[in-house]
């Protein structure tokens, strides 16, 4: 992408770059806007597992989910800096919080 310079050799419209522009590529019209405030990121829905309440060295046994489903449920808590490990058990899987 090249920045438009404001000299006599500039091609195209010299209007203020802060104005919204319309793009008509692929027969679709889009309005490009500047200085739109980014909304606050939505929170995750409540988990049915107590991963958020667990302290280090505590564990919970989960019988009704696959390994992949448990990993997905832990994602939010891993983003918060908490660490977990999962092992198979006789009933299903056991999840330990390790830090």
Descriptive overview:
- The chain has 99 residues and is of the alpha+beta class.
- It has a domain at 51-97.
- It is 13% helix and 20% strand.
- The protein contains 1 helix and 5 strands; from the N terminus they run βββαββ.
- It has one helix spanning 67-79; strands spanning 21-23, 30-32, 59-62, 84-88, 93-97.
- The strands form 2 sheets. A 3-stranded antiparallel sheet has the order 3-5-4, covered by helices on one side. A two-stranded antiparallel sheet has the order 1-2.
- A hairpin with a 6-residue loop joins strand 1 (21-23) and strand 2.
- It is elongated.
- It starts with 20 loop residues before the first strand and ends with a strand.
Itemize the secondary structure elements and their pairings.
Blueprint: E1 21-23, E2 30-32, E3 59-62, H1 67-79, E4 84-88, E5 93-97
Antiparallel strand pairs: 1-2, 3-5, 4-5
What's this, in brief?
The protein has one helix at residues 67-79; strands at 21-23, 30-32, 59-62, 84-88, 93-97.
N-to-C series of helices and strands: EEEHEE
Mean pLDDT comes to: 80
CA-based shape: elongated
Helix content: 10-25%
User: Main sheet?
Assistant: 3 strands, antiparallel
Instruction: Specify the number of helices.
Output: 1
